[in-house]
Specification:
about 120 residues, 5 helices, 5 strands, single chain, two-stranded antiparallel ribbon, three-stranded antiparallel β-sheet
Amino acid sequence: MNFFQRRKILKQANLLDLTPYRIMDDEMEDGMVNVLLPRFNSRFWGPKLQPLLAPHKKFIKIKLDEFGSETWMLMDGKTSVGQIAEKLREKFGDRIEPVHDRLGRFISMMYEQRYISFNELKN
């Protein structure tokens, strides 16, 4: 599916009805999630240079805070954004308000950076 087809689907959809899933790998560190991005992401250089790096230098770690970590773990491909918002509200209470605005911005940013995608965009 090309960019324009995906954008058309996302423009017509309600964000709360979409079902996100993680594309990137992650690791837990002190109860927080680190999203692991391959250091070399290009199709040409990636396969050639990635194996030459030391194991601890193969990835760039994106460290998420407690809200981001909890959201990341809830993006399992089965839970909709609306359900994630309710679970976050139950766990964090007033500290996460306004939950829909914060969650919408976070998920949009993760999608734009290609860390996640949505089941509705699968072919």
